Amino acid sequence: MTVPEIKVNDIDKFLGSQMIDSEGFRPNVGIILANDNGQVLWAKRIGHNAWQFPQGGIQYGETPEQALFRELREEVGLLPEHVQIIAQTKGWLRYRLPHRYIRSDSDPICIGQKQKWFLLKLTASAQNIQLDLSDPPEFDHWQWVSYWYPLGQVVNFKRDVYRKAMVELCMQLPQQSSENSSKM
Questions:
Q1: Do strands 83-88 and 139-145 pair parallel, antiparallel, or not at all (unpaired)?
Q2: What DSSP letter does each residue of the chain carry, written as one string?
Q3: Residue 72 is part of a domain; what is its CATH number?
Q4: Which end of the chain has a smaller Cβ tally under 10 Å, C or N?
Q5: 1 belongs to a structural domain
Q6: Could you give the maximum distance between any two Cα atoms of the chain, in Å?
Q7: Structural domain tally of the chain?
Q8: Does some domain include residue 156?
């Protein structure tokens, strides 16, 4: 699968190794990891009662696919050989951060994320999932949940992006069931 690269002329400013585009959005990848039963990995952020899909910023010089595999390793301990890319969103999906999360003293100011979402199938044992490979870890617990469960659980400001990504990717889900398509 070919993934488009981010060109340097598409990026206006950098914040360390994190890029911020001219509109204040940080390029990011979102990861929906499915098992053979069509369930998806749902992870709890360490120290919070907030659950989400793995995600992370695209660093300068990385393609979205390279960022996907880096984040997958850092956050859940999986290697490229543990998964198969099933699909990705056609374009970037954006969400704005609530004002309380915007660091107005940073330059450039990041007002939100623009995300390329990937649907992956776990091809290895779930025993390969490790949450403690990064310091500090991003997550402290994970579970398999039904495909549409995250929509009712994710923090409100991410809900629309989750819905758009999940609707676009759901038809490619392994073991697609009529329950999945009826929730769109």
A1: unpaired
A2: ---PPPPGGG--EEETTEEE-TTSEEEEEEEEEE-TTS-EEEEEETTSS-EE--EEEPBTT--HHHHHHHHHHHHH---GGGEEEEEE-SS-EEEEPPGGG--TTSSSPP-EEEEEEEEEEE-S-GGG--S-SSSS-SEEEEEEE-TTGGGGTS-GGGHHHHHHHHHHHGGG-TT--HHHHHT-
A3: 3.90.79.10
A4: N
A5: no
A6: 48
A7: 1
A8: yes
Q: What's the CA gap between 56 and 69, in Å, rounded? A: 10
Q: For residue 178, how many other CB atoms are within 10 A of its CB?
A: 6
* Rounded CA separation 113/24 (Å): 8
CA 4, CA 2: separation in Å to the nearest integer?
7
Q: Determine the residue type at 36.
A: D
With a cut of 70, which residues of the chain have pLDDT below it? Answer: 1-18, 100-101, 103, 105-108, 174-184
Tell me which residue range forms the domain holding 79: 8-174
Q: Cβ contacts of residue 160 below 8 Å, gap of 6+?
A: 95
> CB within 8 A of 92, min separation 6: which ones?
27, 114, 115, 116
In 3D space, the residue among 122, 114, 139, 158 whose CA is nearest the CA of residue 49 turns out to be 139
